[in-house]
Amino acid sequence: MRWDSLYSHGALFGVAAALDCSPAAIQAALPSNATVNFAYPLKANATFQVPQGDTGYPVSPVSLPALCVVSAQVQSVRNTTFGFGLFLPDDWNGRFLAVGNGGFAGGINWLDMVCA
Amino acid sequence: MSTDTGHNSSSSDGEWAYNEPGKVENWGHLAMHGSVVAAKAMTTAYYEKESAYNYYSGCSTGGRQGLKEAEYYPEDFDGILAGAPAWWTSHLQPWTVKVALYNLPTTADYHIPPALFPAIGAEVLKQCDPQDGMKDNTISDPVGCNFRTEELLCAGNVTNATSTGCLTSPQISTLYKIYTDSIGDNQTFIFPHLYPGSEGQWLLLSGQEPNSLGTDYVRYFLGLGPDWSFYDYNEDIQRLADRLQPGNASVGFDLSAFNAKGGKILSYHGMADGLIPTSSTPLYYNEVYRTLKPQGVDVEKFFRFFLVPGMGHCSGTTQSVNAPWYFAGGNQAPALGPTVYGVPGFRDKEHDALLALVAWVEEGDAPNHIIGTKYVNDKTQAEVLRQRPLCMYPKLAKYKGNGDVDDAGSWECGSLY
Known about the structure:
The complex is a heterodimer. Chain A is an alpha+beta fold.
């Protein structure tokens, strides 16, 4: 989450990661109904490459702050699942932000996760 | 955090929903809530600290998801920014078919070809812009406009209405339908109409068939199947949608639990929205008001919304209007550029709707207006063309009588009466 604008508003607390940005560490942090799809660190100013085949939100966000990118899958009703994506910034301001989708689209809206 | 809502598709494709009630329920509300719960747990473990505040931002379906969270899962967020909410799914989607049929088939004498939409928009602007008290190329009070459709009627010597930029009498009848609420049997209110001033975004009226956001809903969410013909649309379809409520996607009006926990909602809707009629948001707000005020709830203390003159669906404005539409709402930043965030040049709670929400949640500073910005060049954001306050419903921005009309300080939010 590129909440730089909120830093001027005042970071609530400066927090650094306590876990490794690795699939194993992230899996251990997830509830039992969730499975990690991928987890890896990105350096400052990197681009997150949206996985090929993602139809709903194919545009890759650029110029990211240093962060850990995570994707996980969660069990749901009637043998279905849903997925979610999360950016965990190295320098976190203490706020959690979720963003929405559009129309009937299915896909993680990686782009809006950055632009807020 | 963002959820994929449980499937992979474009925004106009609803085929995944066919005979898949679990997927529809995921899209309706389960995926957002479940993702929020899991992502919060992961965040807490990752930093060994819980988030201090939890926020949401989205527009269109995203606006619906935000309101749905407030209704069903009030514990998830402290602040929700919900733009142009598609909250009445079971009516908005069937209406999307119905409104298109006003202007179909394209061979009918009442069909208005899209080539005529700019002429209609120009006539609406001519009549409605001055009626709001300021001739500034922006319609600020479409509901207050006394619009005479017949000014568009062709003269007797016209042989080609489209090239002349005028309408025949049967086309005038179509225009009346477009600007009229959808009413069913026994005077049942079905759905509000598009605002005058939305002509620049009449995508739902311009095709050879209705938009798939309507037809795919009937075919795959209501289960009538791929062979269903949109020409068979009738009010039974609406009744079926009311009965099935696929995925429980539509949002109810009792937000008392979200209010009770101290949550805040900021909403907004563009007055030139051609996809979701603008007045569906004041409709929702007033239904919440009717539900909660009798319970003694002061709705304005937790839920406020802003109409945005001249803004289309979630973002943007037509070039002839150039309305100040930008305030870092859901999906807005990518419309300016790939590295844009917040409001360039104005990173404060007065200009940035998300920061306004943060200030309301964390400091109790409730916004009475947000200042909208239009840049000279949206791609560079180097220079401001105009700024103006977007006022909390039911107030409107009024020119103070002196000062630069493009300066937000020359305007104040005032009552209509």
